[in-house]
Structures are given as C-alpha cells and as structure tokens.
C-alpha cells in the first residue's frame, strides 16, 4: 500500500509510540482507518490482555487489588505510591493516571492498570519507579501538561464542577510546572471570602491555562476585553491591574 504524506506521518507517530515495525504499524492503522488515537488505544488494550507481558501486569495489579471490589482503591493506591517512592499528592500520580486512562480518582480498574503499564512500556514496579523522573519531566512539556491538566478535571470531579478545596489542592501541585504566577493565584484563592469559595467550573479550570498561555510571565499581556471568567478578572484586580478602557 502506497501511503500519502499524512498517512506516512501517522505511521511514524504510531511506530514511535508503540515500538512496532513498519509492516505492523501499517496493518493496524489500516484496520482503524488511520485514526492513530484509536489504533494506539486498541494496540495497548490488546497488549495488556494477550501480549507477552499480560500475565505480569495482572500479577502486579493483584498485589494492590481490593479482594471485594476487584479494583485498586485507596489503600492499594497508597501502597502503590509507597512502592514508587512518591506521595499520593505528587503530580506524577496524575500523569500515571492519565496514561492509565483512569476514569475516577481513588481507583484503578484492572483494564486501566494493565493497559497503562503497557502504554508506559514497563513490566515491573521497579521499572516504573526508575521512570518516575522522566514522567515528572513530561509535565515541563506544554502539550503534555495541557493533556494531563484537562484530564485531571474530569478525573477528579464528583459532579459537574470540582469542589473548591480539591481544585485548590490540585492547582497547588500542578501549576508550579508551568504557571509563573501560581503562588499569587493560590494567595488570591485563599483571601476570597467563604461565600466566594465556590465549586470550580470546567470553564474556569481550562481558561486559567489559557490565561497562562496569554500572559506567561508578563501580566501586561492580559487583555481585559477577552471573555475571561470573572475570577480571572478579579485575580488581576488582586494583582493591582487597573484596566484602561477606551472612551467612545
């Protein structure tokens, strides 16, 4: 099969991510109509269930699994983190959860855990622990950070919005990787009166990242005419910014 330029690029992406040879990559991509995301997910799903390391993944999962729910829950996650040498409040666990494709904070299903280990290309806790510095450094890459950051909102919420205290705790561990004004943002949140410490919407969560992209380390780049959530406008007032609106 002759590939066009776009398909050739997708083939290279698939090969780099999965480590398979060219013939295998083309075969799998053809099966999923060159939808690289679906092809990657299906590849690792298959590897985690029937690949050469499937039994290893299951054995590791069973080490942490709750015998009643058949999931890894709070106690198992604490043990998992202890074995990795990290705190459950370390941002690294959010990156790991992202690669696991975890749907809910505080638990991993067998499918999520095994597929995630396959995606991370590790076959033991020792290998995963050795890879922690690399996983942490991935948060310094803006594109990876965006994916993990947006994943974290849905992963962590229990309803439509994210509880204020939960959002603050997550911002405290995530924002230092990218947001120059992360300390000031937390100070702003802490000085809000109780009646304003409301649950955080997905719009505010995502727009804070867009705010960072616009201003970087220079608040003078802030555009007051943009449709920011009110909390971001209030943050700028907290920082002493006084917008100069044009008169007509």
Could you explain how this protein is built, in words?
This protein is mainly α and 248 residues long. It folds into three domains: 13-51, no CATH class; 54-139, Recoverin, domain 1 (Orthogonal Bundle); 142-239, Recoverin, domain 1, CATH 1.10.238.200. The protein contains 14 helices and no strands. The protein is globular and about 60 Å long. The model has no long low-confidence stretch (mean pLDDT 92). Keywords: Ubl conjugation pathway. One of its GO terms (biological process) is protein neddylation. This is Defective in cullin neddylation protein.
Concise structural overview:
By secondary structure, the protein is an all-alpha fold. Helix content is 61%, strand content 0%. Helix 1 runs parallel beside helix 3 and helix 4 crosses helix 7.
Radius of gyration: 21 Å
The CATH homologous superfamily of the largest domain is named Cullin, PONY binding domain
**What is the typical, i.e. mean, pLDDT?**
92
For the largest beta-sheet, the strand count, sense and barrel status come to: none
What's the SSE blueprint?
Layout lengths: L4 H14 L3 H10 L4 H15 L3 H11 L9 H11 L6 H10 L9 H10 L5 H6 L1 H6 L4 H15 L7 H11 L7 H10 L10 H14 L14 H9 L10
Helix pairs in contact: 1-2, 1-3, 3-7, 4-7, 6-7, 10-11, 10-13
Please describe the structure with a list of short key phrases separated by commas or semicolons.
Recoverin, domain 1, 14 helices, 61% helix, ubiquitin-like protein binding, ubiquitin conjugating enzyme binding
């Amino acid at each position: 099969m002759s590939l066009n330029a776009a398909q050739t690029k997708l083939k290279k992406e698939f090969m780099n991510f999965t480590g398979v040879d060219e013939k295998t990559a083309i075969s799998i991509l053809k099966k999923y109509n060159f939808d690289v995301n679906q092809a990657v997910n299906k590849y690792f799903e298959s590897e985690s269930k029937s690949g050469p390391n499937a039994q290893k993944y299951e054995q590791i999962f069973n080490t942490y699994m709750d015998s009643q729910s058949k999931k890894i829950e709070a106690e198992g996650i604490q043990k998992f983190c202890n074995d990795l040498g990290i705190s459950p409040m370390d941002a690294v666990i959010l990156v790991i959860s992202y690669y696991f494709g975890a749907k809910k904070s505080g638990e991993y299903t067998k499918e999520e855990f095994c597929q995630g280990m396959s995606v991370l290309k590790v076959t033991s806790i020792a290998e995963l622990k050795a890879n922690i510095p690399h996983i942490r450094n991935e948060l310094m890459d803006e594109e990876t950070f965006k994916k993990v950051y947006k994943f974290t909102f849905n992963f962590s919420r229990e309803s439509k919005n994210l509880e204020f205290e939960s959002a603050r705790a997550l911002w405290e561990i995530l924002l230092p990787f990218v947001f120059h004004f992360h300390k000031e943002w937390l100070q702003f949140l802490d000085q809000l009166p109780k009646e304003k410490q409301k649950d955080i919407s997905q719009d505010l969560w995502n727009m804070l990242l867009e705010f960072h992209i616009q201003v970087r380390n220079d608040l003078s780049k802030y555009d007051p005419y943009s449709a920011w959530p009110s909390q971001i406008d209030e943050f700028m007032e907290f920082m002493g910014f006084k917008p100069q609106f044009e008169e007509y």
